[in-house]
């Protein structure tokens, strides 16, 4: 059976990490942010990549559930940025421990869940509607899931337990600090301790003179 992520997703995370809601997509004002949603360990996450993922998820959701209320744009954009940052934070935590997640492990985990649900199409639909994972991002979903389990296992813990949750949180917090995550303030600020985006206090937009 598909387990909810042991990493941030709104209102459904085994680790209990919640993402704050909502700011609209846009370019940043500093050189590091021009065209980038975030810079993680020196690697840029382009706004165009975020927009492409948001569009794919909205299109897939609309096709799977015609007439639905849709996904709120601002919150979806911010959540997508957070997920892309989190991908890199988990990868760093794994690398720090000499761990990797193979394509074979991802394929096996996916196949196991698909068999339980009656096929890969049913799996993709459930992940889309219940977890907000677009079909193209299913491998990434399993990469995070397996990565979290491996981080806990490396410390002799189960990620589903309180002790395992504590181990995972610390590992991701440490990795986030090491990577020096720099998020475009339009989306918020990465808090390594909370392992989430929080509201930014940076006022980076040019101030307009008040209308006469």
Characterise the protein shown here.
- By secondary structure, this protein is mostly helical.
- Helices cover 49% and strands 8% of the residues.
- It has helices at residues 47-64, 73-96, 103-117, 120-131, 138-154, 162-179; strands at residues 36-40, 43-46, 182-183, 189-191, 196-198.
- Strands 2-1-3 form a three-stranded antiparallel β-sheet.
- Helix 3 (103-117) packs across helix 5 (138-154).
- The longest helix is centred in the middle third of the chain and has 24 residues, at 73-96.
- Mean pLDDT is 82; it is low at 4-29 and 202-212.
Gist?
By secondary structure, the protein is mostly helical.
Arrangement of strands in the largest sheet: 2-1-3
Share of residues in helices:
40-55%
Beta-strand content estimate: 5-15%
Main sheet overview: 3 strands, antiparallel
Give me the count of strands: 5
pLDDT averaged residue by residue: 82
Which structural class matches the secondary elements? mainly alpha
Rg, alpha carbons: 18 Å
Shape: globular
Number of helices: 6
Query: What string, H for helix and E for strand, traces the elements in order?
Result: EEHHHHHHEEE
Distance between the termini: 62 Å
Low-confidence stretches: 4-29, 202-212
Keywords:
mainly alpha; 6 helices; disordered C terminus; 212 residues; 5 strands
Question: What is the topology?
Answer:
Blueprint: E1 36-40, E2 43-46, H1 47-64, H2 73-96, H3 103-117, H4 120-131, H5 138-154, H6 162-179, E3 182-183, E4 189-191, E5 196-198
Antiparallel strand pairs: 1-2, 1-3, 4-5
